[in-house]
Amino acid sequence: MKIHLRYFASVREAIGTGQETVQTQAAQVGQLRLELMGISPQHAEALAPHKAVRAALNQVACTEAAALSDGDEVAFFPPVTGG
Fold it and tell me: pTM of the entire structure?
């Protein structure tokens, strides 16, 4: 299936692009994250399991267990802090 990806803040800087579209066999957001780590060393570093990275599925915050469907948009971003 085709998934549209968006990257924000430090994740975007590390990967070198703000968006891309990929073909995937992943059924869940967590599986997609692991699959994306195989694209390049930059993806592997930005999305590594030890990194605090949040995800949104179709512009709604989600867990790594969220189910994917063809045409979904998944965004990856660092935790947001503020005051």
Answer: 0.93
Checking if the pLDDT of 80 tops 90, the result is: no
Which residue range forms the structural domain that includes residue 31?
Answer: 2-77
Supply 21's token pair: 């579209």
Residue type, 71: G
Say which residues have a Cβ less than 8 Å from residue 18's Cβ, sequence separation at least 6.
Answer: 6, 7, 8, 12
Domain membership of residue 58 (yes or no) is yes
pLDDT tens, 5-60?
A: 999 999 999 999 999 999 999 999 999 999 999 999 999 999 999 999 999 999 99
Q: Could you tell me the CA-to-CA distances from 74 to 6, 37, 55, 83 in Å, in that order?
A: 6, 15, 7, 26
Residue 83 within a domain? no
Q: Could you tell me the CATH number of the domain that includes residue 44?
A: 3.10.20.30
